[in-house]
């Protein structure tokens, strides 16, 4: 009975972890460029830990942190000059609110109050020297496939194109990536800013935006499966209790 109950409890805890991941994905299904969280190849790789005093018992200890789906989301045309999408592999280089370097697929750009180029999460978009891009006043903006930013300055003649900067991008090749708690993608281990060089082996499309790669229908089916798993394990615990009570009844001495 001990093994049965703790197997069921472990399965319940694993279902809880899966439910948390699925809920996180569904809540970000409308965020541009969002990369869905995963648990070790979707449903596996949940680590177990044995109890040192009770060898029959194992418990869910943790799941592999930072795993995410690298599938590309849908590329939708918006027609906005401030929207850019990466086609294929690669990431924009950004600076978070705490000043930490990171990578993202989010391309809904805007101007901050300090005239720096930022994305929809208010993260500063970096140039190839890994500093925030400061935009001068402009009437129109165009972004080339390799991330070069051209503007028509305010007051300039129609059709004037002035190169002001270039968006830093990286293909992410040869990097073991994970998603941090703030949702930003970063290489595992020590990430030294001074040692990182954007490779610019990424192609952009202006006027397009990449959606989240979360498949809502799949997540809803996953939630149904999790609920069934939960109910099954609750029944197993109830069955173990009944078997235990039946075994104890057989061991009782007759009253007469």
Counted beta strands: 17
Largest sheet: 4 strands, antiparallel
Residues in helices, as a percent range: 10-25%
Content-based structural category: alpha+beta
Kindly give the count of domains.
2
Low-pLDDT parts are 41-48
Overall geometric form: elongated
Strand content: 25-35%
Terminal-residue CA separation: 30 Å
Number of helices: 2
Mean pLDDT: 83
* Series of secondary-structure elements, N-terminal to C-terminal: HEEEEEEEEEEEEEEEEEH
The radius of gyration over CA amounts to: 26 Å
Could you characterize the architecture of this molecule?
This protein is α+β, with helices and mostly antiparallel strands and 256 residues long. It folds into two domains: 2-69 and 214-249, no CATH class; 75-206, no CATH class. 24% of the residues lie in helices and 25% in strands. It is built from two helices and 17 strands. The strands form seven sheets. Strands 5, 6, 9 and 13 form a four-stranded antiparallel beta sheet that branches. A hairpin with a 5-residue loop joins strand 14 and strand 15. It is elongated, with a radius of gyration of 26 Å. The protein starts with a helix and ends in a 5-residue tail after the last helix. Residues 41-48 have low confidence and may be disordered.
Topology summary:
Elements (H helix, E strand, L loop, with lengths): L1 H26 L18 E5 L7 E6 L11 E3 L6 E4 L3 E5 L5 E4 L5 E2 L5 E2 L5 E2 L12 E6 L4 E6 L8 E5 L2 E2 L6 E3 L5 E3 L15 E4 L1 E3 L5 H36 L5
Antiparallel strand pairs: 1-2, 3-17, 4-16, 5-6, 5-9, 5-13, 7-8, 10-11, 11-12, 14-15
Helix pairs in contact: 1-2
